[in-house]
Write a structure and sequence with these properties.
mainly alpha, 8 helices, two-stranded antiparallel ribbon, 2 strands, single chain, globular, 226 residues
């Protein structure tokens, strides 16, 4: 007997608003303005922003997953696997027309599935160094580091929060493929990221992340079923 999955329908709108509010608060804290761009960030601030983005991405990813799974997924058909369909009149002209140029400044796409966990390096492995350090020489640490990757994630998350319907449509197509192709990895990790449940996370917020994560995990048996 399959256990009924957890539904948080009445709360998802509030959680979505919370994620949007926290992202804008982060933008105000960094003084980003409407563009949300900084070429460099101090190391400590970079680490703080990365943790906050990781937590918000995990929250948004699980909310989108719950919405996408709440209705039957579409049938996934591999490209070229279906029978050839007759072309309507004028279709050849449309297909032969030149494609529209990609946008000059595309917004990065929000990652809909959980990134794979990184394997820890063996403890005995020596750390590579580009230049040998002279004994007694002080270690120089750059006060600021490039933040382009971080702000690409920031832009992708902001875009996702502004257009949830488009993200759900993208995710439903991806989930349909995962359900049909069992070699595809599951969309969610077994545990939320440390940025969501670490000891320095506010207890109420930590409990919220766990509730959202447990609700999302309760749908995985349905996704994994044939």
């Amino acid at each position: 007997m399959m256990i009924q999955p957890i539904r948080l329908t009445a709360s998802l709108g509030l959680l979505w608003a919370l994620a949007s509010q926290r992202l804008e608060r982060l933008s105000d804290r960094l003084g980003l303005g409407p563009l949300a761009i900084r070429a460099f960030l101090p190391r400590a601030l970079n680490r703080t922003v990365k943790q906050e983005l990781t937590a918000l991405e995990a929250m948004v990813r699980r909310e989108l997953f719950l919405v996408a799974m709440d209705t039957p997924l579409p049938r996934w058909t591999p490209r070229g696997a279906g029978p050839a369909q007759p072309q309507p009149e004028g279709a050849q002209d449309r297909h032969s027309a030149p494609r529209a140029d990609p946008p000059l400044f595309p917004v990065p796409a929000f990652r809909l599935t959980e990134p794979p966990a990184r394997e820890a390096a063996p403890a005995s492995a020596p750390r590579a160094s580009s230049s040998p350090k002279t004994p007694g020489e002080p270690r120089l640490i750059a006060p600021e580091i490039p933040a382009a990757v971080l702000f690409n994630r920031f832009a992708a998350l902001r875009e996702a929060l502004a257009a949830p319907e488009a993200q759900v449509a993208r995710l439903r197509r991806k989930l349909a493929r995962i359900r049909a192709d069992k070699s595809q990895p599951m969309p969610l990790a077994d545990l939320p990221p440390k940025a969501c449940i670490g000891p320095d996370v506010w207890p109420v917020l930590r409990e919220l992340h766990w509730t959202l994560h447990d609700a999302a995990l309760s749908w995985l048996p349905i996704l994994d079923s044939s």
